[in-house]
Amino acid sequence: MEIADHATLVLAAQAGDQKAFEILVNAYRSELLVHCYRMVGSLSDAEDLVQEALVQAWEKRATLTSPQSYHSWLYRIATNLCLNRLTRAPRRSLPSESYPQSDPSRPTPPRLREPIWLEPFPDELLAESGAEPESRALSRERITLAFLIALQHLTPTQRAILLLREVLEWPTAEVAEWLHLSVPAVNSALQRARHALRQRDAGSEAEMVLPHFHLQDLLDRYVAAWEEADIPGLVALLREDAWFSMPPLPFWVQGRLDIATVYQTYLFTPAREWRLLPTRANGSPAFGIYYQEAGIGDYLLFGLVVLGVERGQIVSLVAFLELSTLSFFALPPTLSHLRGNA
């Protein structure tokens, strides 16, 4: 958007032109969604927060004093709403962050449906239009499950400061003014946040270190092994210390042997067949998981598995089984029993 056109739209919106306002906010909606998702760890909550932010932006449009700062003004509104939400919401996590390692030979515990789990984010909603390949790669690294998990261990204020300074690259003085903090306080919080992320090695699971054709070969082998119920073939693709979790079950295991036991005990039963539909989530390869019982009817959506890949091996598998969290993904509820794909 040209600067002159942008200023004209801002002034028109401030004068009450709803069409100008819609043009303005539509240009920023996707990136605000990603920002709010990083803050709260839930795509459904992020969508609500963006909508609320845009309502406030319309109602408070007369308070904006500089058309050039409209972009950062929207972020300020959205960030404050996220901080308010986090004061009354529990920290989101994955089972591996909240529960001891499970015994795969014992029955799985019941699902916990309270809003405590991280939710997946479809890559197709990332605000990447026109971005350089390096920028797209960095954007995807900063939305991986590893990065999201690490963010959840920061205080809400540390989370906001890290995202505003490191991801959005806003000036320290501006962030301090937004959050009603001193510049030294912002710098101190940023250093603590950086240290916390380094300790957790956030972002190390990105598959970008693997050439694309090698990655595709790995994914093809993964699909074939799944659909053939080939447990040794699946295990061979895993790093020795890989881990597997299935939210909303408070259940997770680590290591090839335990993961193989999960496959054998809970998933690959004799009367069940599986199909996988490729997609991407959280900057990582992912698959919609579909099952069919006793060869009858279509394949039904079972969940979404997101793979962490590092140096040619799968290091993590997170199977999101709560179908309501998958509504933002282009995953059909069923796959044809004739073809096994969409």
From TrEMBL:
Determine if DNA-binding is one of this entry's keywords: yes
Q: Where is the RNA polymerase sigma factor 70 region 4 type domain?
A: 150-196
Is Transcription regulation given among the entry's keywords?
A: yes
Gene Ontology MF terms: DNA binding; sigma factor activity
CDD domains in alphabetical order: Sigma70_r4
Q: Name one GO biological process term.
A: DNA-templated transcription initiation
What region holds the RNA polymerase sigma-70 region domain?
A: 24-90
Q: Where is the composition biased (Polar residues)?
A: 95-105
Query: InterPro entries, from UniProt?
Result: NTF2-like_dom_sf, RNA_pol_sigma-70-like, RNA_pol_sigma-70_dom, RNA_pol_sigma-G_actinobac, RNA_pol_sigma70_ECF_CS, RNA_pol_sigma70_r2, RNA_pol_sigma70_r4_t2, RNA_pol_sigma_r2
What's in the keyword line of the UniProt record?
A: DNA-binding, Sigma factor, Transcription, Transcription regulation
The segments labelled Disordered in the record are: 92-114
Oligomer status and interactors: Interacts transiently with the RNA polymerase catalytic core formed by RpoA, RpoB, RpoC and RpoZ (2 alpha, 1 beta, 1 beta' and 1 omega subunit) to form the RNA polymerase holoenzyme that can initiate transcription.
Similarity annotation: Belongs to the sigma-70 factor family. ECF subfamily.
Question: What NCBIfam families does the database record attribute to this sequence?
Answer: PRK08241.1, sigma70-ECF, SigX5
Protein name (record) = RNA polymerase sigma factor
Q: Which organism is it from?
A: Ktedonospora formicarum
Quote the gene name from the UniProt entry. sigG
